[in-house]
Amino acid sequence: MSVLSDKSDNSDSPVLVAPHDSYVGSIDQGTTSTRFLIFNREGEPVASHQIEFKQYYPHPGWHEHDPLEIITSIEDCIEGAVKTFETQGHSARSIKAVGITNQRETTVVWDNETGEPLYNAIVWTDTRHQNLVRKLKARLGADKLQDLCGLPLSTYPSVGKLLWMIENVPKVSEAYEKGRLAFGTIDAWAVYRLNGGPKANVFVTDPSNASRSMFMNIHTLKYDEQLLDFFRFDMAKLKLPKIVRSSDSKAYGTLTTGILKGIPIAGCLGDQSAALVGQKGFSPGRAKNTYGTGCFLLYHVGDKPVISTHGLLTTVAYDFDGKPQYALEGSIAVAGSSIKFLQNNFGFIDSSSEISVLAETVEDNGGVTFVTAFSGLFAPYWYDDARGTIFGITAYTQKGHVARATLEATCFQTKAILDAMAKDSGRPLAELAVDGGMTNSDLCMQTQADLIGIPVERPRMLETTALGAAIAAGFAIGVWQSFDELKNVNIAGVKTFEPKINKEEREKKFGRWEKAVEMCRGWANE
Ligand SMILES: Nc1ncnc2c1ncn2[C@@H]1O[C@H](COP(=O)(O)OP(=O)(O)O)[C@@H](O)[C@H]1O
Ligand SMILES: O=P(O)(O)OC[C@H](O)CO
């Protein structure tokens, strides 16, 4: 386990002991919304602001964000939360640092001379480059990639999205040819713009984000020539952000505009790593599952990467002090987004919180299984040719059955991931810590406990992702100096869901899911 007590050897991040009324801000830039939260030293959020931004789906399988709208949403959230904070009688000056956490893999490209984006951001769920990825899989050396970078080749990491843009968007290929093409995930883009863009040119990322690109060697935390050669990038033409520690008082610069102008950005973590930190997953064997737009189970494996042989990813959990910690990850592309889908596309509900009410209008799923493979199926299956499929519809089927089957889909895939994780780690989990928007549904969490046969523990305060980024920033400036100081954070009010069905029933249900998963393959093969 990495500890922060010996931070004196980190010359980039001097420990400054902060006064007692210090607060830390956290930018949480998710797939569907941006938030800014302000945490006190007890790790409690005291003020927040959230903005949903526009999702662009220009063609089937395509999913984009406007990079400038994302920056505006961050700035507006900061203003909104700080105003609330001030009305509570606090001074904005008591916010000592800001952390950033973000949807990972989503790919932004910009002109490094003007700082302007050259295309919409391609979101992590996007599958437009499926054929490009298939060609890469056939290339000599493809079988070596996962050992180097921890990720299997799929549409999920940033690399395929970047290659697609270079091949298909003239402005992007021109910038590449002129050596002006800057690539970043949302963290790098936001840090760059919040620092004022090309003038300051703060162009950095942290290892938890860089480990999602397929450019970074998971063992050395450096960009890897073998990887870059495999993808045939000309490094004289492509600008990549410098990889720095996840907690650093200087490397991420400062906010240059707005109400927090001059405040350092001192922490940066991909959102799933941030949730692990926010759940205090600081030692090997700790795990968390976050049910947001997608759902991501991270299992802390210690200071050495474990390369999965059962369909999981290897990722950097965090690097606070030059002693990086690693996690095994099970990624589910569609979780809360399937509920939004029933709301926005089918009109079954008016808001996500109504899903449980609709599901409770019926006793069970009525024989319906919904494989929500909108972007293919991610872990542990990696079926790029699967698409969303509903099985078992009869004249008996009601909306409530589909609602139940929708909640169950994420729970079944989580079971498949836990089974894979037990095989890779040799240590099955005894309980599952959860967070994220979808965990507001008691029905969903009870279903989850039933299907995995271990207790599910939901904290009272669900903003663990934002808390994780605040912790990264707070460590850098000395608001907290050791993991031990955080041990009481968010422990009151944990709700435990105990499994209520027996093993035989569980296996029977899971068997039907596995059958459905096999049957939804091959649809997107052309
Ligand atoms: N009460 C609820 N019951 C079930 N799902 C919910 C509920 N409230 C929110 N959600 C789901 O949670 C997701 C948002 O979770 P959040 O953690 O904010 O995600 P993200 O960080 O990806 O934007 C939405 O997709 C929504 O459908
Ligand atoms: O928006 P979320 O919370 O579902 O997270 C997105 C992930 O980081 C994608 O890898």
TrEMBL record:
Residues 1-10 have a biased composition (Basic and acidic residues). Keywords: ATP-binding, Glycerol metabolism, Kinase, Nucleotide-binding, Transferase. GO terms for biological process: glycerol catabolic process; glycerol-3-phosphate biosynthetic process; triglyceride metabolic process. It holds the Pfam family FGGY_N. Residues 288-476 form the Carbohydrate kinase FGGY C-terminal domain. This is glycerol kinase. It comes from Hyaloscypha bicolor E. PANTHER family: GLYCEROL KINASE, SUGAR KINASE. Residues 1-24 are annotated as: Disordered. Pathway: Polyol metabolism; glycerol degradation via glycerol kinase pathway; sn-glycerol 3-phosphate from glycerol: step 1/1. Its EC number is 2.7.1.30. GO terms for cellular component: mitochondrion.
